[in-house]
Amino acid sequence: MKWLATLTTLGLLGLALPAQAQGPTLVPAALRNIAPAGAVRGETVRFTFDGVNVKDASRVVFDDPAITGTPAPGGSRNQAVVTAVIGAGARVGVHRAYLVTPLGTTGSITFYVGAWPQIAEKEPNDTAPRMETAALPATFTGSLGSIGDVDHFSFGARAGEELVFEVVASAVRSRLASVLTLLDASGKVLAESQASAGRPDALLGYKFGAEGVYTIRIRDFENASGGDVTYRLNVGPFSHADSVFPLGFRRGEGTVRLQGFNLGDEPVKVVGDQAGWGASATIRETPKGPLVSPVRVAVGEEPEVLEGDGPNDTPAAAQSVTAPVTINGRIAANGKPDHDYFRFTARKGQKLLLEVQARRLGSPLDSVIEVLDAAGTKVERATLRCVAETAMTLNDRDSATGALRLLAWNDLAINDFIYVRGEVIQIRQLPLGPDEDVRFRTFRGQRTTFLDTTASGHAVNTPVYKVQIHPPGRQFPPNGMPVFRLYHVNDDGGPLYGKDSRLTFVPPADGEYVVRIGDVRGQQSERHAYRLTIREPRPDFRLSLSPEHPNVPVGSSVPVAVSIDRLDGFDGPVEVRLEGLPEGITATSTVIEASEADASFLLTAAAGAKPGPTDCPLRVVGRAQSDTGEIVRTLEPDGGRRVVTVLPRADLTLTTKQPKITIAPGTQQYIDVAITRENGFAGRVPVDVKNLPFGVRILDVGLNGVLITESGTSRRFALWCEPWVQPLRRTVYATVRTETESPASTEVGTPLLLEVLPAAGAVQAAK
Known about the structure:
Layout: H1 2-12, E1 30-35, E2 38-40, E3 44-52, E4 59-62, E5 67-71, E6 79-86, E7 93-101, E8 104-105, E9 109-114, E10 118-120, E11 138-143, E12 151-157, E13 162-168, E14 178-183, E15 189-194, E16 203-207, E17 212-220, E18 230-236, E19 240-245, E20 248-250, E21 252-261, E22 268-272, E23 280-286, E24 289-300, E25 304-306, E26 319-320, E27 325-330, E28 339-346, E29 352-357, E30 367-373, E31 380-391, E32 403-404, E33 417-420, E34 423-429, E35 438-440, E36 442-443, E37 446-447, E38 463-470, E39 483-487, E40 489-490, E41 502-505, E42 511-519, E43 529-535, E44 540-546, E45 551-553, E46 557-567, E47 574-579, E48 585-587, E49 590-592, E50 598-605, E51 612-616, E52 619-626, E53 629-635, E54 642-647, E55 652-656, E56 660-663, E57 668-677, E58 685-690, E59 696-698, E60 706-708, E61 714-721, E62 728-736, E63 748-756, H2 762-766
Parallel strand pairs: 2-9, 10-11, 20-24, 25-27, 26-28, 45-54, 56-63
Antiparallel strand pairs: 1-3, 3-6, 4-7, 5-6, 7-8, 7-9, 11-18, 12-17, 13-16, 13-18, 14-15, 14-17, 19-21, 21-22, 23-24, 27-43, 28-42, 29-41, 29-43, 30-40, 30-42, 31-38, 31-39, 32-35, 33-34, 33-38, 34-35, 36-37, 44-46, 46-50, 47-49, 47-52, 48-50, 51-54, 52-53, 55-57, 57-61, 58-60, 58-62, 59-61, ...
């Protein structure tokens, strides 16, 4: 321990020891949790917001005007206390709140508002408690504190009484995968429900046959436990709808029938004035009272018909409909596998969209649709000729992942189409080394498929083929590899559709065609309802902004992302700009390229910008051209306002030697960036370039990306341009950031003009 004594002596003598690296001083505010995670309307509650740098929050913003609150002054660095009044008129259900602080506006966090007395669990309650039964309705609250923990609550019920048991967990950040079990006084299981893909929290309804004392048991499906395995369990004679039919109506006013508990027999009238992709109306009230869980129904634009009473379970018996149309039907139990068939007339070359709405509206149907000719024969869509073969290796992959590990990729190139066990996907990036995956086009984190094929899981050693896409019916000389013929069939429509089916059909000839719809698993019941729409596409798009409430250090620029949902086959470029910025804040415009899913702005706070938050009507405006003319879509802020906060000076400033980067296809060019460290910051600095067009990417990327080390102030790295990239001029943004414990970004950037030359200029640019 001589070295320890030496260090102690040096310290006592006042000799200087090497100082530790100074961490970042600008750490934006962020939220991680709120406690309690629920409240009762009509009460005043003290919320504790946990996060990063939330001290001295000036304001709390709730998503319901019936909920108001005031942050207490001061507080600790990572906690803010808010006294909130939950008004008697507050909506029952999940709500959101965020904080406005001197160090930025946080993202929102969820909590639940109920309408019934809360009863906290009392351990031990691993078995049916021997205590007085709880008065209903009530909300039981608790947590599963140890592995295998289960909680029980007893209550009384009358003969003929209908009670509903609703778990609220996942929506308020609990890890609970809930399972509810209803027991009678002898311990006999009467009913059970668990979380599922369609409903993340368990919900159970039951009609009691006899008066008595009963018990509801709650547990985790995988025996998870801990302080974040919490629940709120609402129990009472609530109105709850298990199903609704039809699942929607044409714009205006419609009538639907609900099935479930405490609903009565009267139909419910619904009004919906807005139609279009994803348009819906929400049912919150019934003649018997409010629903414990609101029901959403679709609002359509096409004429609507009901599935007929007669049999339509063969192509010959297909029900005739006239497109455009929305068909409301059920895959109902009849003792045998059920498919519904509908006959329609179409013209050669007429582009039609066939879309199912079912799972998105609460139906358990996992639909699959297929288009047949008038005789019930499959209609070929495309022929795939295989020209190279490899296989999957390393491990199995699910239906969502955007990367597959392949044995070899020497015959593959970016933009090649790949066929793997039923799905067609497109290469986005090839590996730079032997321990990397081939990456494919994705959207919202899920692998994108083409030609309406359906993504599925793939096992190790599954064959993988590079394919050429040809018109249907083509024949080829043998090349030792298979030829795949695709038909007009779809199971899952993709990230915007989930388990609902969607396909595009271009008739090869004038005539009649038949669409078949069923459940891919063969399931059927009166609850397996669907809306099947046949119409011509209406290309459109929707925009979203991230972060919703930007934070900009004074005198700096930060990247802000805009994302797009492409609807009905719209695939063109979109010009996007920000409007309604506060004084002292400016923004670049940007373009979301054709086929791409996002782009970036650069938001700048002038050196003299007023510090602190400013409410403003910041909105995103996108313009594009389609076959039907100009499309203009505006993303307005919720509640009419966003908060833009000017933060203190950033820990980094960034400069580049090259304000313009000129690059030719098939070549690389270097970027030199330099940083000035402020406020004593001495940590490592990740470097990136935002807004690059597809086909232009950063090279020299290590395990942690491009970095400026703790002792460095500059870095050179290369941009590579694929040979097929077309000429363009585009503003991109070199960025650097500090690494903090806050999930909020600390990235600052500077604009660069990127020019991709025509391919003929490659030789000259490479010199």
